[in-house]
Amino acid sequence: MRLKILLATALTCSVLGFAPALADEPPGGAPAQTGTWQPPSAPSAGDPDEVICKVQHKTGSRVQTEKVCMTRRDWEVQAKSASDAVSEQQRRGAPQSVH
What we know:
The protein is built from two helices and two strands, in the order αββα. By secondary structure, it is of the alpha+beta class. The chain has one domain. A two-stranded antiparallel sheet has the order 1-2. Strand 1 (51-57) and strand 2 form a beta hairpin. The radius of gyration is 16 Å and the shape is flat.
């Protein structure tokens, strides 16, 4: 039971970490013209060791942000990890609650 809670918490945190990046896209579907933002599905191009900084909203706040800098390779690993976690949760289905 604790493992399920831990996995659900980790999944939620990783998904929420990517939500602000998705929110930067205007309603028309075109990416925002700010900073080095790239759509999550964009094919990787350039130096994998290039440092890319993104501004992310802190969890639980609509105002506070933090600047997160990682290499292109690290961003790709984090995105794949979050995608794999979501896919695994969808494959397993929703956990059954015990009454």
